[in-house]
Specification:
158 residues, Rossmann fold, 5-stranded parallel β-sheet, 42% helix, binds adenosine-5'-diphosphate
Length: 158
């Protein structure tokens, strides 16, 4: 029961994502970070690149694994026998969006429960889209993303 999945785009993973992964790894027996691969979305990093970065960032959390999912997330969870889905929330705007997604997922599969974990205060304004915007202008991302992600972003935008 105490196995949870933390799905998202992670394009790229940020310090906010890492914060949730580390805190969740201390709560759940197992945590699977699920990298969404939606053919209709344009990602900056491939699923393999995103998965490799998260594996490296979470390497000290022995109960964290990483998978890539190109189906509906509820179908992935069902296939893996996972009943808990974890989502991070930065504020009310996130919550209202996440709440709707969780209702939709409940209608798709009533056996899956969504749990929300609030961000720690220093990560409230960190989102992957803003990170990419700042990186594209060669802005300083220190503290907002881990150093390995900062290096990967510099390479993408060089
Ligand atoms: P985003 O582009 O918003 O970062 P993701 O799909 O990569 O989106 O996010 C995956 C999950 O991580 C979502 O539940 C999202 O709300 C959460 N998340 C994203 N950034 C943060 C953050 N700074 N603090 C806490 N949770 C976050």
């Amino acid at each position: 029961m105490l196995k949870a999945a933390f799905p998202g785009s992670f394009d790229p993973p940020t310090s906010g994502h890492v914060n949730i992964i580390k805190r969740a790894s201390a709560i759940f027996e197992e945590l699977v970070v699920v990298i969404a691969e939606n053919k209709r979305k344009n990602y900056l990093f491939s699923a393999v690149e995103r998965a490799d970065m998260i594996r490296e960032l979470a390497k000290d959390c022995k109960n964290v694994s990483v998978s890539v999912c190109d189906t509906l997330i509820v179908d992935f969870l069902k296939k893996e026998g996972i009943k808990l889905m974890l989502r991070g929330v930065r504020g009310l705007e996130d919550f209202s969006y996440e709440f709707e997604v969780s209702m939709m997922n409940k209608m798709l599969d009533s056996g899956i429960e969504t749990l929300f974990m609030t961000t720690d205060p220093e990560y409230v304004v960190i989102r992957s889209s803003s990170i990419k915007e700042v990186a594209s202008f060669k802005g300083n991302l220190k503290g907002m993303v881990p150093p390995l992600v900062e290096r990967a972003l510099k390479e993408k935008y060089s």
